[in-house]
Amino acid sequence: MIVMKMQRASMYRPPAGRWRVPAVVLVAAAVLLLGLFHWAQARLGFQVGGSLAGSVPGRVAGSLPGSLPGSMSGWGTGRLPGSPPGLATGVPGAPGGFETDVQVAERRAVALMAEGLRIIARAREAAGYPVDAAVDPNMTGLIGAEWSSITTTLGDLQAKRTATNPLWAAYVVRRMAEAGVRPGDVVWAAFSGSFPGFNLAVLAAAEAMGVELYAVSSLSASTWGANLPGFTWIDMEAALREAGLFRGGTVRGTVAVTFGGDYDRGPELFSVFADEPGQGVAALRAAAARHPWPLLEPEDLDEAVELRIKVLAEAGGRPLPALLINAGGGHASLGDCYDVWPPGLTTGPRPCGGATPGLMHVLSQRGVPVLHLLNARALALAAGIPVDGRFDIESGF
User: Fold this and answer.
1) pLDDT tens track for 21-53
2) Domain segments of the chain: what residues?
């Protein structure tokens, strides 16, 4: 009896009327909620224009912050600045019974990118590079190999897959409109083979908005990017042109190519793994020779930036563009600056804080807004686009 009383006295009893949840239950609940969040985040995206016609059920849902007309600065009516009256007003389908010009452009851009994925996947198969469902479950054709002779740096497979979602085309449309880009304006782009998904999104958005787009493309790529020697990014872009994806006549796309990599010298980092010295650069020269675009071979980083500005200005007939879009982390774009350029849209000048400024810093100092497409996960989380989500390009978007 005495023992029983001692045991009861040593047992913890919460104060009357106050029951406390055991810590283990709280931890388990937190883990469960976190798991549910990541599960949903990987499957839910934003709706383009309030509703996405033809979207795959259960694949595309949710909303992008600022999706309602007028909710973003400068979007008072939701009409693309400078667009003809009635261009897309009164189109049924959006909440309230109509869609704005921006929403219509978003829809068209998504559809164009989805069609571009189908074109690229077929062209890749025809080039002798079957799509590997193990690393490219959405069968986009944009995911390369873990390593090849034209690989420059390490890349993240999840980030590369995230960048293939056609909803990025709508994201680029929205950021271009936010930057004040008008139909007929000249936009410059720096394309990296590391993120072919972002490159395609930019092309589709430019076509949908009717802007003049001129780009310089790098031939090499990081791991899992467009790093197949016989099917580089410019081979993908050429397939899109041959299929007639750009029918508006304003999207010139690539006007010059470079080796890419540090100082535009190509795949120096992994050259020790190549079967023969110089194999990677030889493959890049062969890729450039398959197409009519000139190959830029600068001596240093300063010249790499200067050459890009020169060829883009000559191609577009303007000394400066309305917007610069950078896809990927090219050395010539980022320069040797100490600071990290934030992903997304930057509208003000940004100092370099290092030895040699890149193209983005140089143009921002000249008053050009910059849209930087890198760090796919952070951008996707901010925009509500699925991180490494699953979709079916054959079912439409």
Assistant:
1) 565 555 566 557 655 544 444 444 444 544 333
2) 79-383
